[in-house]
Amino acid sequence: MEWNLYKIKQHTMIGKYNQFEQKQKPVQMSKPLNEAISVGGRIVTPKTLPGDIADILDERIGDEYTAHYFYRNAANWCKNANYKKAAEFFEAEANSELEHAKGLQDYLTQWNLLPAIPSAPTKKSFESLIDIVNGAYEMEYGLLEKYSGNQVESFKEHPATFNFIQKYVDIQNGAVGEYSDLLNALNLIDVNNKLDVLYFENKYFG
């Protein structure tokens, strides 16, 4: 009786072990992995972006450099006019635009493309601090429209680029809001009064 009980337990344990072994067997692939990735011994050619998507990103690089030089000139003008706080503000804006341009170029090289950097105007003249704020708002709003349109265009053709551009739409939304606030603040002062403009500069660029 004891022997039979032992045999029964042994048989049960062996059965459970076999079931465990079957569960641990890897799922069979329809094609061996090495064959699936070797493509007959050739090296796989990395994917790249559609030509029209690459073109619009190149255009935006040019726009970001245009914005950089706008703010670079604005900072210089403010320094010369002794608007020190505004000069620091526009200096930071100029550096931010360079980062935006770099981000676009990094994305293109990630997709195995060499960015085609368009020429951008390097000189910009201003008549006043108000002139700079007006120009900045129009420029940032224009960029918001461009990035938003580009995002819609890329939705079906290249979803990854759609997601990438969202970051730039968010940046432009923030910039438009920032300069909108400055324009609203300018409506509270006499822009022809130098002391009022100096108060505005000290209050909103500090």
Topology:
Blueprint: H1 2-24, H2 33-38, H3 51-80, H4 84-110, H5 129-157, H6 159-186, H7 194-204
Helix pairs in contact: 3-4, 3-5, 5-6
Please tell me about this protein's structure.
There is one protein chain. Helix 3 packs antiparallel against helix 4, helix 3 (51-80) packs antiparallel against helix 5 and helix 5 (129-157) packs antiparallel against helix 6 (159-186). The chain starts with a helix and ends with a helix. The chain folds into 2 domains: 2-38; 51-204, Ferritin, core subunit, four-helix bundle (Ferritin, Up-down Bundle), CATH 1.20.1260. The model is unreliable at 5-10 and 25-36 (pLDDT under 50). It has 206 residues and is mainly alpha-helical. The protein is 75% helix and 0% strand. It is built from 7 helices and no strands. It is elongated.
Please describe the biggest sheet, giving its number of strands, its sense, and whether it closes into a barrel. Answer: none
Question: Regarding CATH, which class of the largest domain?
Answer: Mainly Alpha
CATH topology of the largest domain, what is it called? Ferritin
Indicate how many domains the architecture comprises: 2
Stretches with pLDDT under 50, minimum 5 residues: 5-10, 25-36
The beta-strand count equals 0
SSE-based structural type = mainly alpha
Radius of gyration, taken over Cα atoms and rounded to an integer in Å: 31 Å
CATH superfamily of the largest domain: Ferritin, core subunit, four-helix bundle
Secondary-structure element series: HHHHHHH
The DSSP helix count reads: 7
At CATH level 2, the architecture of the largest domain is: Up-down Bundle
Distance between the termini: 95 Å
Helix content: over 70%
Task: Give the overall pLDDT as a whole number.
Answer: 87
